[in-house]
Amino acid sequence: MLSRKTEDYLEAIYNIIEKKGYARVKDIALELKVSPPSVTEMMKKLSNKGFIVYEKYSGITLTNKGRKIARGVKRRHVIFEDFLNIILVPKDIANRDACTMEHHLDPKTIEQFSKFVEFVKSAPISPKWLEHFKEYCKTGKYKCERREF
Prior knowledge:
The chain is mainly alpha-helical. It folds into two domains: 4-68, Arc Repressor Mutant, subunit A; 76-139, Iron dependent repressor, metal binding and dimerisation domain (Diphtheria Toxin Repressor, domain 2), CATH 1.10.60. Helices cover 69% and strands 4% of the residues. The chain has seven helices and two strands; from the N terminus they run H-H-H-E-E-H-H-H-H. The protein has a two-stranded antiparallel sheet with strand order 1-2. Helix 1 crosses helix 2 (25-32) and helix 4 packs across helix 5. It is elongated.
């Protein structure tokens, strides 16, 4: 299992490459809010583990191994951010919390979150229960009969 730090770096590199087509130490430092020397140190580690191709003063690219991990982390992030948006968590908090959640949950839990988010996204426009939830968040009152589980 990879450390959260390793996953965060790979995801940041992936995101930067998706936006700009390439990643540099400076870009990664800005994205992760860390110092360039810290990024350089981590780039050496990631390169030694076969996750990236890194040459000093050059762009950074992901290897197939690194790209696969980064895509998985990004997928988990999007799932959790979408879920948090569905339950009306403010976007800035949803993004921050998704970063935490993407590293700490069991794969089966992640799969169930994924299924739920996909279900909600493909449900009819404004399903009644979602509208009831929004109303409940605003007023603290139920708009419909409650059911027991």
